[in-house]
Amino acid sequence: MAQDYHHGIRVVEINKGTRPIRTVATAVIGLVATAPNAAAGVAASRLIDFAAVNSGVTYTAATPGTDGNAIRVRYVDPGSASATLGVTVSGSDITVSLATDIDSAITSTAAEVASAVNAETEANALVTATEEGDGSGVVNATGFQNLTGGEDEPFPLDTPVLLTDPLGAQGDAGEEGTLARSLKAISDQAKTLVVVVRVAEGETDEETKTNVIGGVDGTTGKKTGLQALLSAEQTFGVKPRILGAPELDDADVTGALIGVAQKLRGFVYASAGDSATKEDAAMYRENFGAREVMVIWPAFTGWDTATSSTRTLSAVARAMGLRAKLDNEFGWHKTLSNRPVEGVSGISKDVFWDLQDPATDAGYLNSHEVTTLIQRGGYRFWGSRTCSIDPLFAFENYTRSAQVIADTIAEAHLWAVDLPMHPSLVKDIIEGINAKFREWIRRGYLLGGSAWFDAELNTPEVLKAGKLYIDYDYTPVPPLENLMFQQRITDRYLVDFADRVAAA
């Protein structure tokens, strides 16, 4: 308790009132891909040499990466006669105690030092030593010298990597696998944050699928495959919300992605597998019943600079990039449908579409909750439906609105947890939520929304237990999916025809 008596002035801060609520970041892509020839890490190294010819030794870190830059090597003059050459290790420090003759002069050559370091188990676990030339030159004592130049592997397997420039990262992705093509597709649409998880390409499709789906390493506890997306927020402070595994997403992979999406409050864009026809695509969509996934068929085509030829291009990768672009430029309340897609020049299958006729290939696919591709003023996605059987979440933007609102409201109130639950605190929470709803409504993200305190639900027993229920509702903005004009022919404009002639 604060001291009651004080001769002077005290200031007591009273931090009450509503807090501003920041909408969670939505344009963060979670990409799972393969890249067999992605750039490797660079091992740190250091050349320690002297004026004497052939007296140099190059030390190279045993493991590539920036950790090698912490390794240090030094040569020590023992300051005594007839000392023997010895190597000791302390952490990442390697100390070489040089040999001397009966006059206490150093006699160790570069070749002898390199051999001694490589023979010492702990030292050899850190570095490999290579003498310069024949190594016959005698070395001198020197202080600690750090290895330098170590660089981490840009896309280590089963490890989330945050990219702020997906276009610039293509150079490290190599030309094989799906990673480079996916990054190109995304960057064609938008510059956005991308969390990449690279998985190993197996010798068979089944082995690759296992690597993509991943799991948890039984020895280290590390999440692997697409499960590694779950650790991105703790590592980078961003949560992937636009998920996909372009060119790798069969029904099994998509099912696993949906499970991850539900944990992240994310949304999956998935291809219709190997569907050859629109009927196959419609049947493929029946594999899923989740609100967190949109099935897309067919694929795009376009020029591939890696092969200098036209090839099939993933529609999923472009959907992910376009979704991020819409989130940044328009809002999460706008569906993917009917927006131009960049970087493509064709569609892989013939899809008949007519703006005014529902009896088309596109109409059939949309009626079966499959988003398709059309060409009208550029190439576009056509369709806004999820795989949910619940009409409340039939549209892509309905699901994403629910996700964004839930995370925004929850994440914004960490400050309130464990504070004394006075009525003023409850009022501040409610007023803060309503202020956010007013902002969303003004910006067109929602049609309406409000929060309130339910006295019947918050009984004295509930409140005494430290629980508080705040209710809120909202109305998402429906996409204009079916615009109907009613056209009538009439003769009522002929009634005053004679008068109009006379007036003319």
TrEMBL record:
Superkingdom is Bacteria
Q: Which residues form the Tail sheath protein subtilisin-like domain?
A: 221-387
Which InterPro entries does the annotation name?
Answer: Phage_sheath_subtilisin, Tail_sheath_C, Tail_sheath_structural
Indicate the segments forming the Tail sheath protein C-terminal domain, all copies. 390-490
> Which Pfam family would be a valid example here?
Phage_sheath_1
Q: Which PANTHER family match?
A: PHAGE TAIL SHEATH PROTEIN (PTHR35861:SF1), PTHR35861
Family assignment from sequence similarity:
Belongs to the myoviridae tail sheath protein family.
For this entry, the protein name equals Phage tail protein
